[in-house]
Design goal:
The chain is an alpha+beta fold. The chain contains 18 helices and seven strands. The strands form two sheets. The protein has a four-stranded antiparallel beta sheet, with no helix packed on it. The chain binds D-malate. D-malate binds near residues 233 and 268.
Length: about 425
């Protein structure tokens, strides 16, 4: 039995009362602080997937799953996507406030000053097999970067943390483009520091040393908006990984590399590629959307719809709402006529009108639309999760920094409910 009073929650179990303090956030979320449960009562909580567990207090990102709201440092995602640039949002997430004009210029100049990779790193890219997945290269190269910046490893040294965040932010597009160029056997393109963040990345991705590359401003702005929409999402799987790795006081590069590996999975950042694979499968099978909707509803069929539903959002994902209109606009402005778009639109219609989807809250999420736009901008499917990682980087770094600065932080060390054998006698190998 649960009973709440101001600042406390009492649970009665086997006629014993257990009283815990509660913590109320600025938007009214109530957390029950059970940190003394084991110490005082020899009991622990069991919460698969941490669906009901807050692991920290955070002032960075607010998500309201019921109303479909997302804010970075209090600013609505709709406003940031419409008015800000990606470096501006990165500054906001990491430093807590929007930069002034001068601060933004200084930050962008700092980023431009660190876009190059150490030449010795090139040998590392060469060592991967042709066709290696760029996410594997990205996380390996990010971890490897820590070996070039050992002087910045101290998480308690403010200046070192600042230098690491700037370097990671400046160099990740270069790493990502080298990973891509390696995978297709083209020469690595060095950054161009006269370009803005997204334009420079496009240049390194799609440019060639033998001919000029013209940046399409529609593509550059679309990329910037996509990066903004991915920049943070409170305690998701990869961010929690970054915090967990960092809680051991591992350096920022190592912690972020851990987050990248978590992001790679198809249930997280890998979902945007999985959506395109699913749409391609439906297209190649004749484009019969109804057939695949029936398969998705059949619990004995292994087919799974990708890009629908979300652990936190219960009505709609505000990033998807922004992207839905944005996708139509970008595709029209670029003159893209993609057969997968028609399939995506039919699936979307089912999701919004069919009782099966409505009851289960299976509405299209951010990954459903982002893949379509990344594709129309010319990015190959295997780069989609890398793009997510570039977008998420400021969020990972802001969360890591907040975790390090929080005096309540302890090394992450969950407990378990042991469900194995009780003590038993060892038998020698020839007696088994
Ligand atoms: C994200 O942006 O990280 C995803 O929507 C997943 C999540 O929040 O759990």
């Amino acid at each position: 039995m649960f009973k709440t009073s101001d600042g406390e929650l009492t649970v009665t179990h086997d006629d014993q009362d257990y009283t815990f303090p509660t913590v109320t956030g600025t938007e009214g979320d109530v957390g029950v602080d059970i940190s003394r449960l084991r110490g005082d009562h020899k009991k622990i909580t069991l919460d698969y997937g941490f669906a009901n567990t807050a692991a920290c207090r955070s002032s960075i990102t607010y998500v309201n799953g019921e109303t479909g709201e997302l804010r970075y440092r209090g600013y609505r995602i709709e406003d940031l996507a419409a008015k800000a640039t990606f470096p501006e949002v990165a500054y906001l997430l990491i430093n807590g406030e929007l930069p002034t004009k001068v601060e933004l210029e200084e930050y962008e100049a700092e980023l431009r000053g660190h876009t190059l990779l150490n030449e010795e790193m090139k040998a590392m890219f060469d060592a991967f097999p042709r066709g290696a997945h760029p996410m594997g290269i990205l996380s390996a190269a990010t971890a490897a970067m820590s070996t070039f910046y050992e002087r910045y490893h101290d998480p308690r040294d403010e200046e070192s943390v600042k230098e690491s965040t700037v370097r990671l932010m400046a160099k990740l597009p270069t790493v990502a483009s080298f990973a891509y160029k390696k995978s297709i056997g083209q020469p690595y393109m060095y950054p161009r520091n006269d370009l803005d963040y997204s334009s420079n990345f496009l240049y390194m991705m799609f440019g060639l040393p033998v001919e000029p590359y013209e940046i399409d401003p529609v593509v550059a702005r679309a990329l910037d908006v996509l990066l903004i929409l991915h920049a943070d999402h409170e305690q998701n799987c990869s961010t929690s990984t970054v915090r967990l790795v960092g809680s051991s006081e591992a350096n920022l590069f190592a912690s972020v590399a851990g987050g990248m590996n978590a992001l790679w999975g198809p249930l997280h950042g890998g979902a945007n590629s999985a959506v395109i694979a699913m749409l391609t499968q439906i297209d190649q099978d004749g484009g019969d959307v109804d057939k695949y909707v029936a398969k998705a509803k059949d619990k004995d069929d292994p087919f799974r719809l990708m890009g629908f539903g979300h652990r936190v959002y219960k009505n709609f994902d505000p990033r998807a709402t922004i992207l839905k209109d944005f996708a139509a606009d970008v595709l029209e402005r670029l003159g893209v006529n993609d057969p997968l778009l028609n399939i995506a639109l039919k699936l979307e219609e089912h999701a919004l009108t069919d009782d099966y989807f409505v009851e289960r809250k299976l509405y299209p999420n951010v990954d459903f639309y982002s893949g379509m736009i990344f594709r129309s901008l010319g990015f190959p499917v295997r780069m989609f999760t890398v793009l997510f990682a570039i977008g998420r980087l400021p969020g990972w770094m802001a969360q890591w920094k907040e975790m390090i600065e929080d005096p309540n932080t302890r090394i992450g060390r969950p407990r378990q409910v042991y469900a194995g054998y009780q003590e038993r006698e060892y038998t020698a190998v020839d007696e088994r």
